[in-house]
């Protein structure tokens, strides 16, 4: 690092690359979660265009449980904080 | 990634970072669009005896797409709350 | 924009980035369409290496219907022209 | 992306653009190759009592791969027609 | 890609190459993490009457994740052997 | 190429791009193989956290057979050496 804490070009590349990977990871997680909870919660009959009460609460719980699973797996992989914290 | 890391970056890098984020968001929404189409097509279109959608298939696709979008927005809100460590109740 | 319509470096980056995203989008769409129509139309017995008449016409209709679905969804998302038009 | 946008680009960018397109095409065909292998493997290989393919599995894989390639080419033609706004008949 | 190609590269490119490889490895492990979570969630969580995992679901997720990791390591070893042209016996 | 075999900037880009694609291809192949063989070989009951003898030998054979399939398909696509050989 240069003095006064200004990051060097290489450090900047590093920070930049890490940020990009974290973003890509989050997007991937969000997409998988969205598709999985759609399959688990939304009825395939498509009788109407709105989500009903049952579907909505199923979605909320599905997201919460999915989140817990990422936490459990993150801990198992040896970091107290999963990649996305 | 700590907030501090970003602060240490010069202006041009902050700009580059926000360009990257914009880029990923566009890519993300295009991907979402593609998986919505795939899913609703798979769920709604079963017959291939004609090459145009019949009325029933079209209605199914529209409802499916609308539901998927609403679902996706709801997931997005919940996801943001959890990312910010919001307390959860059963 | 510079005079005489020559795009600036930033504009060029922008155009370039948009073109790349459109390409990636089309590739992704094509791949999903190909896999979906394969699953819907091609028999899994693999008795021969050629597509038969029924499979071929199923594929044509599958592609046409898939295309219509992208159009319907594109309109719903608020642009008259879906991203790939 | 309008054609005009491309025309406005200097030579070096046109070159860069065509390099990108080549790059994406190679990547695309490698992805296609990977999903073909995955699909034909899943459809044709069910037993894991030996570590080499038996004759029947091998025949199945070959036919499946050939069909997938033909299918992919057909989809590609239809897709190109639709992209160019060709009229469709039922 | 022949080894000779790499040797011809100047030092800065070798550095760039190894940075790219590191980058892809991190991305790869994040993807693996995401598909592990998806798979174990799908296999273990069936009920959405509460918003927290019950004891049974949690146990299932942990075992599933552990099995997936062990599986992935085993595949990785076999894959490396095959890449190096190791002889195979039935 | 410049004299003494030092690659030009364009050649270097080319080599670099090819190496990156080959890496991405291998990662994609490895991921698909891992998921496919997990689905084919590992029991979903998760009674214990260890892979049993049957699962382990199934995995070995699954990887070997998957590898053969990549070889067969690679040959069909007209190169004696599949992309990753």
UniProtKB/TrEMBL annotation, chains B, D, E:
Record's GO cellular component terms: mitochondrial inner membrane
Main location, first listed in the record: mitochondrion
Coiled-coil boundaries: none
Signal peptide: none
Keywords: Chaperone, Disulfide bond, Membrane, Metal-binding, Mitochondrion, Mitochondrion inner membrane, Protein transport, Translocation, Transport, Zinc
PANTHER family on file: MITOCHONDRIAL IMPORT INNER MEMBRANE TRANSLOCASE SUBUNIT TIM9B (PTHR13172)
Similarity comment text for this entry: Belongs to the small Tim family.
Protein name as it appears in the record: Mitochondrial import inner membrane translocase subunit
